Amino acid sequence: MLDELYMRMALDLAKKGKGWTAPNPLVGAVIVKAGRIIGQGYHEKYGQPHAEVNAIASAKEDVSGATLYVTLEPCSHFGKTPPCSDLLIDKKIKRVVVGTLDPNPLVAGKGIERLRKNGIEVVSGLLEEESQRLNEIFIKYIVTKEPFVVMKNAMSLDGKIATVTGESQWISGEKARKQVHCLRHELSGIMVGVETVIKDDPQLTARIPNSNNPIRIVVDSQLRIPIASTILTDQDKAKTIIATTKRADREKLATLKQMGIEVIMTKEKSGRVNLRELMRTLGAMGIDSILLEGGATLNFSALEENIVDKIQTYIAPKIIGGKNAKTAVEGAGILSLKNAFQINRLTAVMVGEDLFLEGYMDK
Ligand code: AOF
Ligand code: ZN
């Protein structure tokens, strides 16, 4: 069906904005008149024009009477820009095909209503699943104001994330690692436990061309982070935030503040950082998405506190063994199988030589 083809084009265009639009959505638009594509555009960067505006601006001929395909319902509010629905009415667009409704309470159906009231034919929900998946971050964040959390793990076929000596670089292959760097670019934040910082001294940046580094968040209830850690000394690359509790070492706290590091104090949750509270605080700071990159203790707490939305696991074709070799999720563990953390909509594909599993957590 042609409608579907154009909507797929709009979805592909929208994806070009990945990593640049947060906390706003990824949106693509295609304009078709008399069987020809006469305009296309996408939301390129936060604060810049919406997709529909860019598509109309790209058209070299009159768009009146045309059909506009857009992955998200056109907006109806005055934000950084005037309502796109008004622009479509002004430009005499005849038909609008929408991927999915905008869950933003300021819009939420009002955009479509406005178009229909002005005599524009509207078809809504074409490739809806794809359109919603594209904006899974936005859809959660705009309603809850809490970040969408992706838990990522790379392990051997026998579930180990390191050898007994602690060696972990690299278990997964090059393609998988590159995919992770793309994800670091796409998400607003990256979060690890302090043990990971102590052990690996990671950079937690997106090492691919033309990328945007995520804000680095370290969960560290007692402020054990070494002052010489890379993520504290390379603040020019990306911001680092430390989440701690009142168990924090006072002197360390003063030193970190002197270094210009932002420290968030949360209430304690069994002596640790309260992750639910942390998510609310980070959300209020505009962080719409977080890549959780371990370690095993933080992973378990994150699952227990139900902050994880999606899991991504790379399984490498290697066996490591060793009773004391670390696995991806440790902590206290659950005691009864009926309490296992359940994953829905699990899919599997190969990424290079690794098996890549992706699924969603029950909410
Ligand atoms: C975008 N880009 O292409 C579309 C959006 O912050 P504002 O004023 O630009 O408005 C943001 C809201 O506009 C956003 O939350 C969503 O509801 C709607 N649509 N936003 O940034 C776009 N179509
Ligand atoms: Zn708009």
UniProtKB/TrEMBL annotation:
Pathway: Cofactor biosynthesis; riboflavin biosynthesis; 5-amino-6-(D-ribitylamino)uracil from GTP: step 2/4; Cofactor biosynthesis; riboflavin biosynthesis; 5-amino-6-(D-ribitylamino)uracil from GTP: step 3/4. Keywords: Hydrolase, Metal-binding, Multifunctional enzyme, NADP, Oxidoreductase, Riboflavin biosynthesis, Zinc. Its EC number is 3.5.4.26, 1.1.1.193. Substrate binds at residues 168, 184, 204, 207, 293. It comes from the Bacteria. One of its GO terms (biological process) is riboflavin biosynthetic process. The active site is at residue 52. In the N-terminal section; belongs to the cytidine and deoxycytidylate deaminase family. In the C-terminal section; belongs to the HTP reductase family. This is Riboflavin biosynthesis protein RibD.
